[in-house]
Amino acid sequence: MDCAPDQKVADATARAEKLFAVVSDLVRELRGPGKSVAVTPSSRLDRDLGIDSLGRTELVLRIDRAFRIRLPVSVMGEADTVGDLLTALERAAAEPGVPVGNTAAEIPTAGETVVAPAAEAGTLVEALEWHAARHPDRLHVTVLQDETTVLATMSYGALAAAAKAVAAGLIARDVVPGDRVALMLPTGTEFFAAFFGILYAGGVPVPIYPPMQISQLEDYLRRQAKILRNAEPRVLITVTEALRLGALLRGLVPSLGAIDSVGGLQSATPVALPQVNDPGATALIQYTSGSTGDPKGVVLSHANLLANIRAILKAIDATSADVLLSWLPLYHDMGLIGAWLGPLYVGAHCCIMSPLSFLAHPQSWLWACHRCRATISAAPNFAFELCLKQIEDADLVGLDLSSLRFVANGAEPVSIHTLRRFIARFGRYGFRSGAMAPVYGLAECAVALALPPPGREPFIDRVEREALTRRGVAEPAMANDTNAVEIVACGNPVPGHEIRIVDGAGREVAERHEGRLEFRGPSATSGYFRNPAKTAELFHGGWLDSGDRAYMANGDVFITGRNKDIIIRAGQHVYPHELEDAVGDIPGLIKGAVAAFGMTDPDSGTERIVVLAETAQSGAIEQEKLKARARDAVTTIVGTPPDDIVLVEPGTVPKTSSGKIRRASAKEHYLNRQFKLPRRALRRQILSLWVAGIGGRLTRLARTAREQLYAAWWWAVLSIGVAVGAVAVLVLPRRKWRWAAVRSLARAALFATGIPLSVRGAERLPKERAVVVFNHTSYVDAIAVAAVLPGEPAYLAKKEFAGEFFAGPLLQRLGVVFVDRYDLTGGIADTAGATALARQGRLLVVFPEGTFTRQPGLLEFFTGAFKIASDAGLSVYPGVLRGTRSILRGDQWFPRWGRIDVDILDPIAPQGTDFESVVRLRDAVRQAVLSRCGEPDLRELVKPPLAGTP
């Protein structure tokens, strides 16, 4: 009799009991002795067991070790109950993956061919196009699930093709150049395609981080909604599974017109794309960490990003021969710009894996570096600390980190203690001390502002505590000074950028004097998006305020803290991160989960020092011991004890999406004595979000009503204008008077509908003897041109209009010239007549495209107008219309408010009367219009009729 099924049941039961024991042990540690709770399959990790984000990471690590398997990283965010963990465990047991350790794995490489960077590119799109045109099959990025599993690869050609497909979908959803598009995608090829797809469409990417835990859905959406309301995106791109979640955001963000996935966007019909060749155009809005209260979206142009990328590559001697490995989130500047766009520009192979992979299995970062033979990587300080605490020696057998030559340590204060221990421990596995590179940067400078020379061992400055904290002078400490402050050098300003240190009055201070760090350079932002108040605070006479305090010595910059976070106690500057590091090192308190901040005492006027620290210990005696040790640690640094120490449960101290302590929020929690946000059931969270979105839906409804009322008013104004104009044209005896009436009515109609009309270059136009050609985007073009042109212009129109009952007589009274576009013989005769008219002194006005489409883009020009100009010896004035397409698109009759810009460019003279000269004139004029209209070139998509007529 086969007993295999019974054995399977027994094995499953044993796994369940073992899992319950692992979970119970963790809960017991989190809650303290005597605080255990019954663990069942229905127990919710967050609400019932109190296991937060950090606890989930620890739990996954313990399960992996207990069962000698590796759970999928998605379990950290998706598992809601212990039963979910058991299901994932059963699946992993049935489908064992590659075991952890030094097992060889095939990782694709870009080959040994060295390629040049896109040195001539003015935009990120041009950089991608440069590589895609020269080596489309070159491997650009490899997406890893962990150190052993390749999820996907993408070449330069594949990235360009996928991005263009996304761009087509965005354009089909009415995204126009300058529109913001939000990206809520996890690490993967879809993110890369979506990011460049937005750029190809002329849009501006706004990356936001995807939700990590479904149990925190409400808090996540409310925080992101504040950012999105500031950014006003037209479209949100997310994963298919999150489309319903995105629908909740529509209620909170009225500007959202569409929510779609990459696959949904790529299903659109291919279209011509706008030219993305303006280095000054916005390429990214990067919202700074923790900026949800008063969103600060850093505006970065293509020129800013490329300047920073080039400066970084020059500073670290990076080439296409390098291999960069990163687990940093792509919604953060360090992961997006430094770890992805930098390798893309230089042509280097980039290996990317999810942040969840690292958090669940820190050793996966190091092993991935080993297997990819990475030369460059980056991480914030907490990552190095996590490697030290969570990775066991057994997980490192056979590890070789000797390929690494530059590992940036930035994005948060660098702990000297962590730095030394990491170098000491992993030096046994080939990690060179010269590879550790403490760096400094900020989103307002794209990503990097200061980098150390590659290969230099970390330089640590020991300064006298009293001199620095009381007088702001970094005086070198004696070797036997046990109370010295240690500060690590973050390197020199990147090429082309400058740093200065100023005092409170804005005067530059001497070397080794602490003050406010300011910077300037080609990577510097132009300001914060739709936040003029914060932008004004950012700039100081051409320099930008970093918000950090620092000093300079021998060309290196040394960061001492944040201006807003510095605690001034009895004239002494106290640096919160130093207190947080010291308190976090105490056994029983959670490292990286300590917040120190100052509060003004209303009675004495001095600042009180408060420390908020997470601990799993809940017993009164144990907590008092921890508080005593924390008081001693603070007293050692400050000289006096803190005013208050509050121990809180794990997951209480607020952090940004990138793991930084949110001290202002921690202070707010302290003042309100609200140390734990209530976790409500998912159904209640969704209901709360739906109710909160009522205001947004009402706003959207009101906007729709305003748009409909405006459309009705617009058509009313237009109808009255046409009626009055028709009477004037039919009654007035002179053509000059008729045109004056039409011109006045056109201007009055634009004024009445609130449409601003901006005209540049009108002084170039003569009143006669010239040809003016305009791009054609809408029926509104006729109103705009009529409002602008002087004298008695002679329009060239298709002959079909002459036979229309209403329009024909009116156009004839205005002196419009009718031409046949399709009959060759008739077209030549019409052209000859128009030429004679031009020689008589009339100002000819032509829309050489002959028609317009809903899709943005410049069509091919007919040659008739240029034949007329050549035969009559008249210069052609290129005219550029912008904005009319948005007001009234082709194939629709619902007008929207917008502004109209009209540019009259320098005239172009004909160089002969032969056919080749006519074509050259046409192409020169068309290129001039194309360079200024901001729309793509549709010449290859739409061919004109063969008749040589306008």
Could you please say which CATH topology of the largest domain applies here? Rossmann fold
The largest pleated sheet is described as: 7 strands, mixed
CATH architecture classification of the largest domain: 3-Layer(aba) Sandwich
Count of DSSP H/I helices: 30
CATH class of the largest domain: Alpha Beta
CATH homologous superfamily (4th level) name of the largest domain: ANL, N-terminal domain
Number of structurally distinct domains:
5
Query: How big is the Rg?
Result: 33 Å
> How big a fraction of the residues is strand?
15-25%
What's the total count of β strands? 34
Q: Tell me, briefly, the overall form.
A: elongated
Numbering strands along the chain, what is their spatial order in the largest sheet?
Answer: 2-1-10-9-11-12-13
Structural class: alpha/beta
Give the termini separation.
Answer: 91 Å
Low-confidence stretches: 97-104, 821-829, 941-950
**Subunit organisation of the chains:** single chain
Mean pLDDT: 81
Q: What features would you describe in this structure?
A:
The chain is of the alpha/beta class and 950 residues long. The protein folds into 5 domains: 89 residues, Non-ribosomal Peptide Synthetase Peptidyl Carrier Protein, Chain A, CATH 1.10.1200.10; 256 residues, Rossmann fold (3-Layer(aba) Sandwich); 107 residues, Luciferase, Domain 3 (Luciferase, domain 3, Roll); 127 residues, ANL, C-terminal domain (GMP Synthetase, Chain A, domain 3), CATH 3.30.300; 220 residues, Glycerol-3-phosphate (1)-acyltransferase. 40% of the residues lie in helices and 18% in strands. It has 30 helices and 34 strands. The strands form 9 sheets. The chain has a 7-stranded mixed beta sheet, sandwiched between helices. Helix 6 packs across helix 7, helix 11 packs across helix 12 and helix 19 packs across helix 20. The N and C termini lie far apart (91 Å). The C terminus is likely disordered.
